[in-house]
UniProtKB/TrEMBL annotation:
It comes from Candidatus Azambacteria bacterium RIFCSPLOWO2_01_FULL_37_9. Keywords: Aminoacyl-tRNA synthetase, ATP-binding, Cytoplasm, Ligase, Nucleotide-binding, Protein biosynthesis. Gene3D superfamilies: Anticodon-binding domain (3.40.50.800), Bira Bifunctional Protein, Domain 2 (3.30.930.10). Residues 15-195 form the Aminoacyl-transfer RNA synthetases class-II family profile domain. GO terms for biological process: diadenosine tetraphosphate biosynthetic process; glycyl-tRNA aminoacylation. Pfam families: HGTP_anticodon, tRNA-synt_2b. This is Aminoacyl-transfer RNA synthetases class-II family profile domain-containing protein. Coiled coil: none annotated. It comes from the Bacteria. The keyword tRNA processing does not apply.
Amino acid sequence: MDFKNIIDTMHPKIPFGIAQMGRAFRNEITPGNFIFRTREFEQMEIEYFVREKDWQEFFEYWLDQMHQWMDLIGLSSDKIHHLEVPDGERAHYSKRTVDFEYDFPFGRKELYGIAYRADFDLKNHMEQSGVDLRYFDDMSGERFLPHVIEPTFGVDRTLLAVLSESYTEDEVNGEIRTYLKLPTIIAPYKVAVFPLLANKPQLAEKAREIYNDLKLEMRVAWDDGGNIGKRYRRQDEIGTPYCVTVDFDTIEKDDTVTVRDRDTLEQTRVRASELKNYLREKIK
């Protein structure tokens, strides 16, 4: 992160943050537990710059934001553990560090972290490089080194936690059904649309019309391969919350379609003209 370049070109007002995401490499001796511990992984982090006197306020703010993020992606609060790292175990430059641990199927492991790094990074870089990295406050005329609060997120571990949380099995008509109980906001597709029978042009045409209309404002999957049961199962396994089926009643009777709920398996008849509003309310 080129702090000086950002200061000189964007002129941000303190407090401000810079977020970045990238690939990291580690000489990991014992990789394992699928993608939990690997030698190559994706990392997200935020460097949030504050005045020294304000660090506690913004540390609490980012703690709350991290809790909200974990709630948003569907991680159960009873599986998340907030761990204050004691003085003797923190990095020498950190005045406060909090780790978030999650109950994975293979045990309680670290998921995220947040640290107050004070002015350690900028001060050391300035001393070694000779470049003035102080922030200038044009309101007060003051120059100072900002202090840094750093929330960090492992992307691979996030994905693994979400999959662990959402993987669900139940029994339907004597058979085991597997599905991902993903929160709607992170489901790859919000809705799937199918004709009941792919070889009936009138059904396929109407289903395609609905698909084209819905995809203008939401992520929609199209599937016309195999029987309707197999299509439902495919969408269950990738976590699609709702499936819309166009059948003969749609064409010949009342212009209604069947909307199936992934979690409850409940099927509701909805008028095609009201479908977009119905789904909009469901997935908001």
